Amino acid sequence: MPLNPNTPFHSAGLPEDMSVLRRALETTLAGIPGVNKAGTEQRILNLACGRADETGVLADVFGRDAERLEIVGADIRSAEIEEASLRWRTEKESDLQTRFHVEDGKRFLAAMSSRERFDITFMRHQNFWNDPVLWERMFEGALRQLTDDGLFVLTSYFDVEHELACRKLTDLGAVKIADHRNPRSRKLSEAPGKSIDRHIAIFRRPPPSTPGP
Ligand SMILES: C[S@@+](CC[C@H](N)C(=O)[O-])C[C@H]1O[C@@H](n2cnc3c(N)ncnc32)[C@H](O)[C@@H]1O
User: Fold this and answer.
1) Domains of the chain, with CATH numbers?
2) Closest ligand 1 atom to the C-alpha of 105?
3) How far is 151 from 195, CA to CA, in rounded Å?
């Protein structure tokens, strides 16, 4: 579903980063069934979303064929959430709705009803290495709120943090179904070894446990 920003991006390079992200997501998703379910309602949770610059890309890539689309973002930083809310505000009657919350992701997920489910949970530039206990909680909550065939999609800036996050998700029972090293990832000159959306991985929630004999 097309979603255009209400306010321009501040950084001149951002549209190019978004175009690279879109391409990398499409490549990573290729061959994964059920990503765009035509005529259905799709719900996307963007956790630790910051300014959520990628909201338009998410609407295109995951909501292209949806009849209704809802994108929910959450981050602890209020200035970034305020900017996201302004840039991606949608009309009340639109089939595409966005809402952004200033919330601690762990608390946000813990307070969520178990009936509230998302088709996609997205974490761009996850930060697991920086606070493993906090991010493990967010990973657990994000997996719990997924629909049965939902997808947990994350991106990482550098190799080690990507490996650590993927290992933790596997330990939590999630099943990795795709892992892509983005060849067009933009290098960060001030941070050697890091680049924008360097890795993308996709997981499914843990399979239901099989009944014992
Ligand atoms: C590396 S930044 C990525 C931001 C954004 N997803 C992006 O790619 O531009 C990590 C984000 O995690 C957020 N964060 C850290 N702790 C959090 C928490 N407890 N709950 C929600 N967000 C948190 C930070 O505010 C920050 O925006």
Assistant:
1) 43-204 (3.40.50.150)
2) 20
3) 24
